[in-house]
Amino acid sequence: MAFGGFKVLENIDLRVTQGEIVGVLGPNGAGKTTLMNLLTGAYAPTAGRVHMMGQNVTGLATAARCRQGLGRTHQVPRPFSGMTVFENVLVAVGHGRTTPAHDPIAVAWDVLHDTGLAMVANRQASTLGLLDRKRLELSRVLATDPQVLLLDEIGGGLTEGEGDKLVALIRKIHARGVTIIWIEHIMRMLMDSCSRLICMAGGQIIADGAPNEVIDAPAVQSAYFGAAA
């Protein structure tokens, strides 16, 4: 991916298999969010292709990818603040893989029970604390019935206890067979959840493997922690 003559991503070769939970880390400016935008269709790559479940989706818009089973949360939750929690989730139902045979109201309630928001379903989204706003962000994506879930620094701003609750929810989602790609700055959350880590720096993948092996790699120590390579 290049903007003018500036290459933000280069030589990215990434494969994620069904059912994996893969963490992506790297310093600011590494290209992580740009990669997320390419996967979701927010950006069109200047070279290369994006495949999902065997299909070339490079030319598909974000909404079309969502209908095929790709969901994404944003680093800063973006609820419809003038709507209730329930209404926010209900709006999302039907924009993904949910078929007309599903009762939208039932789907919305099922999601809210799963994410622990059923008790605040009638509250205005604007009144929620940060953890519940993160849960609502997840709820809206889950209402589209994703097969692949992209998480963009969803742990940012949470206390350690709140982060633990969020990790438990993400593990619960993953246990259902949802494939997850998770960009996160809070390394503890990734180490507690992911079986595989990818580290990016300078628009490239510099390490890919088991979490402990990636963290201990000299290139990662240098790029991410500023240690001597």
Concise synopsis of the structure shown:
It holds the Pfam family ABC_tran. By secondary structure, the chain is of the alpha/beta class.
What does this structure look like?
This protein is of the alpha/beta class. It has 2 domains: 1-32 and 147-229, P-loop containing nucleotide triphosphate hydrolases (Rossmann fold), CATH 3.40.50.300; 80-145, no CATH class. The protein is built from 9 helices and 10 strands. The strands form 3 sheets. Strands 6-7-8-3-9-10 form a 6-stranded mixed sheet, sandwiched between helices. The longest helix is centred in the last third of the chain and has 16 residues, at 160-175. Residues 1-227 form the ABC transporter domain. GO terms for molecular function: ATP binding; ATP hydrolysis activity; L-isoleucine transmembrane transporter activity; L-phenylalanine transmembrane transporter activity; L-valine transmembrane transporter activity. InterPro entries: AAA+_ATPase, ABC_AA/LPS_Transport, ABC_transporter-like_ATP-bd, P-loop_NTPase.
